[in-house]
Amino acid sequence: MGDVIFAGSAVVLFRIAGIDPHSMASPTFIGFSVLYGIMFAALGGFVAGIIGRRPDVICGILLAAIIALGAITALITRTGPDAIWTQSAALILMAPAALVGDWIRKSRKARAG
User: Residue 97: which pLDDT band, with cuts at 50, 70 and 90?
Assistant: First the structure.
């Protein structure tokens, strides 16, 4: 479910904006979409941890790995001079945010219980 939250939110954003995620965009849109992606990656990690009901952050680690693997695959398989800002941001910022989201869930649970 965490991957659906992350990927689904990206699909919605790029469709609404009418921007190809593999092309260059304005600096304003890039900044907004990166922050948006970080937020939804963290939310995905948080939800994955809740669904997984684990006392550790393995769900966040797994979601981070899924995001990173998708970004690396897209970077390796690109066929032209496409912009790589979306893949780079996913790899460097959004994958770790998924882990942070699960860590926040774990920390909140520990304080509550």
Answer: very high
Q: Where are any strands of DSSP class E within the chain? A: none
Residues 6+ apart with CB under 8 A from 84: 75, 78
Question: What's the structural domain count of the chain?
Answer: 1
Cα separations in angstroms, 58 against 24, 28, 29, 72, 80: 34, 34, 32, 21, 36
Task: Go through the chain and tell me how many residues it has.
Answer: 113
Q: Which two tokens stand for residue 33?
A: 């979409």
Q: If residue 113 lies in a helix (H) or strand (E), which one and from where to where?
A: none
Using one digit for the tens of pLDDT, what is the confidence trace for 41-55? 999 999 999 999 999
> Which ranges of the chain does DSSP label H, i.e. alpha helix?
2-17, 27-52, 58-77, 85-89, 95-112
Q: pTM, whole model, 2 decimals?
A: 0.91
Q: Reduce the DSSP state of residue 20 to 3 states and report it.
A: coil
Domain with 70, as residue range(s), is 2-112
User: How is residue 82 written in tokens?
Assistant: 């496409």
Cα(11)–Cα(74) distance, integer angstroms: 15
